[in-house]
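Students often ask why inverse folding is considered easier than folding. One informal answer: many sequences map to the same fold, so there is more than one right answer. In these notes we will look at a single instance of the problem. The structure comes first.
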């Protein structure tokens, strides 16, 4: 029932006003990024390479390597997947990757808020029975 107070569970955790305000800021930024649809996991790295021709400048001392080339890299199921990008692809997808990083940062902040509220729960103070010691819990098995 919307708008009904949960009288059966008066101890339902309430979020502090500052916590709520912070969560709303995070939510707004998350939504703004998500709405662009421009989110790409992985990373883009610059590569400079040597070719197979022995008399090429890339084998000189000092070497004049080929490139720069840009490579997008991502881990999928513990396997690294790579693709070469053109210069304009690199320019465009750098933004997408930055967006992905920001999403993860925002989620981490949201989780940190939740963890702080969890730690601050006053009910931790009045638990009737706690294990006598932490060292005792691991030995019995
Ligand atoms: Zn070369």
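Output (designed amino acids):
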């Amino acid at each position: 029932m919307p708008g009904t107070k949960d009288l059966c569970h008066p101890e339902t955790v309430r979020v502090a006003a500052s916590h709520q305000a912070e969560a709303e800021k995070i939510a707004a930024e998350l939504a703004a990024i998500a709405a662009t649809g421009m989110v790409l996991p992985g990373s883009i790295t610059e590569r400079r390479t040597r070719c197979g021709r022995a008399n090429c400048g890339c084998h000189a001392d000092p070497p004049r390597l080929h490139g720069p080339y840009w490579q997008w890299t991502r881990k999928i199921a513990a396997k690294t997947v790579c693709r070469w990008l053109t210069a304009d692809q690199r320019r465009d997808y750098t933004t997408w990757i930055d967006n992905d990083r920001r999403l993860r940062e925002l989620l981490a902040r949201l989780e940190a808020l939740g963890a702080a509220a969890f730690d601050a729960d006053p009910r931790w103070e009045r638990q009737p029975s706690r294990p006598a010691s932490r060292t005792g819990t691991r030995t019995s098995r």
